[in-house]
Amino acid sequence: MLLFHQEGPIVTITINRPEALNTFTHELIRQLTGAIVRWSAQPEIRIIILTGSGDRSFVGGVDVRAMMDLDQEGAEKFITDLHRCFQAIRQSEKIVIASINGYALGGGLELVASCDLRLASEQARFGMPEVKVGIPSVIEAAFLPRLIGLGRAAAMVYIGEMIDAHEACRIGLINKVVPQEKLKEATREMTRKILQNGPTAMILQKRLIAQWMELGLNASVEAGIRTFRECYKTDEPQEGMKAFLEKRPPSYALKLET
C-alpha cells in the first residue's frame, strides 16, 4: 500500500490505493507510521515527500468500511493510531512535504496539516466531511485554527463542504498551487531550495516552529534565543556566512541531478 523512491537525500512515499481514493485503512496507517519513523532515522535523508497514487486523490480520508463497525474501545485505538502517524511526521527531524495531487479529505487533510510544507495541483480539493457521516473532526484537526483561523476552521468542520486549491492557498492552508502536470517539478524545485540550507539549521527551525505552536509569545522568544545559541555548536553559521561573503555555495548545499 506504500511505494518508495529515494533520490539522494530525498525519499518520496506514495500512498498507493488509487482504486479507493488512497483512503486510510488501519493497516495502511500502521505502515505509514513505520515508514515515517524508519526514513526519519536515516542520516542521509533530509526531505520526505508524501503524495498519493494516481491523479484523483492524495488521501481521500479514512475508508468508511474501516470505521463503521468499531465499538468505543476500537474507535479509541483506531484514532490514537492515526494520531501517532501524524505525530511521527511532526516529530521527524526531516522536512516533510505534502505534494497534493487530488482529494485531501478528513484524515487526508489532517495529514496535510501535519506536514511542514504543502503544494497542491489545481485539481486538489480539501474538506473535513466527518460530520456528514456522524463523527466529529478530531486529533490533528486541532491544527486547523492555527493554520487558517478559528472562523474558517469552524466552517470546515461544521459544514463539511470542500474548498478548491486556490481557496486553500488564499487562506493559508497550503503554500502553493500549480497545474496538475507541473506538480512533480514544483515539488522538486522546492526540495532544491531546501537542500541549499544548513541541515542543522533546518532541524532546529522545525523544532522551534513546533514550540511556537505550543508556547506563548514570551516563551517562544526565549526558545528562539536558546535555539540560536545551539546552532553555534556547529560550524554551519560560519560556513554559511563565509560563503555568502565569498559569493559561493556553502559546503553543506546539495544539488539534485537534472
The end-to-end span amounts to 29 Å
How many strand units?
10
Nearest-angstrom radius of gyration? 19 Å
- CATH class wording of the largest domain: Alpha Beta
Verbal overview:
The chain has two domains: 193 residues, 2-enoyl-CoA Hydratase, Chain A, domain 1, CATH 3.90.226.10; 48 residues, Lyase 2-enoyl-coa Hydratase, Chain  A, domain 2 (Orthogonal Bundle), CATH 1.10.12. The model has no long low-confidence stretch (mean pLDDT 97). With 258 residues, it is of the alpha/beta class. It is 46% helix and 17% strand. Strands 1-2-3-5-7-10 form a six-stranded mixed beta sheet, sandwiched between helices.
Which terms summarize this structure?
258 residues, alpha/beta, 2-enoyl-CoA Hydratase, Chain A, domain 1, Lyase 2-enoyl-coa Hydratase, Chain  A, domain 2, 2 domains, 6-stranded mixed sheet, 4-stranded mixed sheet, 10 helices
Summarize the structure.
This protein has 258 residues and is of the alpha/beta class.
How are the elements arranged and paired?
Layout: E1 2-7, E2 10-15, H1 26-40, E3 47-52, E4 57-59, H2 72-91, E5 95-100, E6 103-105, H3 107-114, E7 117-121, E8 125-127, H4 144-148, H5 150-159, E9 163-164, H6 165-170, E10 176-178, H7 183-194, H8 199-214, H9 217-231, H10 236-246
Parallel strand pairs: 2-3, 3-5, 4-6, 5-7, 6-8, 7-10
Antiparallel strand pairs: 1-2, 8-9
Helix pairs in contact: 1-2, 2-3, 8-9
